[in-house]
């Protein structure tokens, strides 16, 4: 029997959490030509200039990697960049409804795949832990549906600072955290609802079991190589010291072809492209795992389906920031190329999307959820926040069309059958995948 989401959602939550009105990262495009307010030479810039002087110009990918995740000085490693006092804001920080609907998505997929006795929820780049926190609240509220299911949380995070904030958001303070900087699992804790949480630096270190994977605004911070088509063929964009101004960095084109050219697709028609080999490696790992043990991956980010060219940009203090100025003080990002992610899945699993955020959230029942929260609240400021958050997430001119959802699922999920159906049983027809289709409950 299918129960429409409307009636299933009604008895749920009536709590609202505060939101912060700030800027989101998908808004502008830039490639190093926007006047920067802050042009002091940072320790990161000194480090990069030393590197360039000793071994020559560096690729944009190496620049991004150093600036964002260098263990000593990286932007992500020691910053809390999210929220009002940070550099940008993300959907889970804007509205609790976002994470709640994603929680519903995982439960809906868990049901559709046959209600396994256990699953891991793995989040890549969990920021402040807000998204997982909202998902865990849904899991608690739907405890009767998930009862007897053994759930564990696995967070993949490179940032020391953010992992501490995630622990504060998610764990029960009375149970001390276990820390071991040398171990692949560098921290362990227990959620407020008693679910074990483990922290890793790499996806490869997360145990291979039946898992649901989540990556929100994670793929856009992975390093990209940039290429320009020239009469001599593809030439990679490098970063060098400006010979005219000794403490300034500038873009240059490589004089000959470079190894990363191997990542350019044969049928490429654009004349400027960004390729992200790290994204390919992660998608291959996710695809292998899902093909082997089942589960699903949900990836949400701003991006395109293989059409855009120059999207590398920086954000600092909710403003666009010159990517080559004061490195280490600003976020660097590039749009996700979903067509590349689809190719990297290599048909080991089925891929769905990208679909625009406004479509995905509508299909997931955002209007019903908003109404429930509005009906429950008498406080005009809370009601206004809820409406503003909805507008930010859904408005085509804001995040509604720039952000996309993309999923990887086992082939059998889309073609009927699941892991728990034996050969003699008739295969049930596959239920639609929520978000990519309207949400229904079996
Ligand atoms: N998903 C969160 C945060 C997005 S910001 C949200 O939507 O609010 C990007 C996140 O990815 C941060 O938590 C950052 O520390 C983490 N991150 C960046 N590069 C990473 C890498 N190479 N491996 C693991 N985490 C990374």
TrEMBL record:
Entry's Gene Ontology molecular function annotations: enzyme binding; protein-arginine omega-N symmetric methyltransferase activity
Keywords recorded for this protein, A-Z: Methyltransferase, Mitochondrion, Transferase, Transit peptide
Localisation: Mitochondrion
One of the protein's GO biological processes: methylation
Catalysis: reaction(s): L-arginyl-[protein] + 2 S-adenosyl-L-methionine = N(omega),N(omega)'-dimethyl-L-arginyl-[protein] + 2 S-adenosyl-L-homocysteine + 2 H(+)
EC number, as in UniProt: 2.1.1.320
Segments of skewed composition (Polar residues): 419-429
Broad class of enzyme this protein falls into: transferase
Predominant place of localization: mitochondrion
InterPro entries: NDUFAF7, NDUFAF7_sf, SAM-dependent_MTases_sf
GO cellular component, one term: mitochondrion
Region (Disordered): 417-442
Family in the record: Belongs to the NDUFAF7 family.
Function as written in the Swiss-Prot or TrEMBL entry: Arginine methyltransferase involved in the assembly or stability of mitochondrial NADH:ubiquinone oxidoreductase complex (complex I). Acts by mediating symmetric dimethylation of 'Arg-118' of NDUFS2 after it assembles into the complex I, stabilizing the early intermediate complex.
Subunit structure: Interacts with NDUFS2.
Record-given protein name: Protein arginine methyltransferase NDUFAF7
Organism (species): Sciurus vulgaris (Eurasian red squirrel)
Lineage: Eukaryota, Metazoa, Chordata, Craniata, Vertebrata
Gene: NDUFAF7
């Amino acid at each position: 029997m299918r129960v429409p989401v409307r009636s299933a959602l009604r008895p749920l939550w009536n709590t609202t959490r505060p939101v912060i009105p700030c800027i989101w990262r998908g808004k502008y495009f830039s490639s190093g030509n926007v006047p920067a307010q802050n042009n002091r030479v940072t320790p990161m810039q000194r480090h990069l200039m030393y590197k360039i002087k000793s071994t020559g110009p560096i690729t944009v990918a190496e620049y991004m990697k150093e600036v964002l995740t260098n263990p000593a000085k990286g932007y992500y490693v020691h910053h809390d960049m999210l929220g009002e006092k940070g550099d940008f804001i993300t959907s889970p920080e804007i509205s609790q409804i976002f994470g709640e609907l994603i929680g519903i998505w995982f439960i809906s997929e868990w049901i559709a795949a046959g209600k396994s006795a256990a699953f891991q929820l793995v989040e890549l780049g969990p920021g402040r832990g807000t998204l997982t926190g909202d998902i865990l609240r849904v899991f608690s509220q739907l405890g009767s549906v998930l009862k007897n299911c053994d759930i564990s949380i696995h967070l993949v995070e490179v940032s020391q600072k953010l992992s501490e904030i995630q622990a504060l958001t998610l764990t029960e303070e009375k149970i001390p955290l276990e820390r071991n900087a040398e171990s692949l699992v560098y921290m362990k804790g227990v959620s407020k609802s008693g679910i074990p949480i483990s922290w890793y630096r790499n996806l490869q270190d997360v145990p291979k079991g039946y898992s649901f994977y989540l990556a929100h605004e994670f793929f856009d911070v992975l390093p990209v190589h940039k290429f320009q088509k020239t009469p001599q063929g593809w030439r990679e964009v490098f970063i060098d010291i400006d010979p005219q101004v000794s403490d300034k960095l500038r873009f240059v084109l490589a004089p000959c072809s470079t190894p990363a050219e191997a990542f350019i697709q044969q049928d490429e028609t654009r004349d400027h492209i960004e390729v992200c080999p790290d994204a390919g490696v992660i998608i291959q790992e996710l695809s292998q795992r899902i093909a082997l043990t089942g589960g699903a991956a949900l990836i949400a980010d701003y991006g395109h389906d293989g059409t855009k060219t120059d999207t590398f940009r920086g954000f600092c203090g909710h403003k666009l920031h010159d990517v080559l100025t004061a490195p280490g003080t600003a976020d660097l990002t590039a749009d996700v190329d979903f067509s590349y992610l689809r190719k990297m899945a290599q048909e080991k699993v089925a891929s769905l999307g990208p679909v625009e955020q406004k479509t995905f959230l509508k299909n997931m029942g955002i209007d019903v959820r908003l109404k429930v929260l509005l009906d429950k609240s008498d406080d005009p400021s809370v009601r206004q926040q809820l409406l503003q958050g909805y507008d930010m997430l859904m408005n085509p001119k804001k995040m509604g069309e720039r952000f996309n959802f993309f999923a990887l699922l086992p082939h059998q999920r889309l073609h009927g059958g699941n892991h728990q159906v034996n050969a003699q049983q008739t295969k049930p027809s596959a239920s639609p995948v929520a978000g990519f289709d309207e949400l229904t409950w079996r």
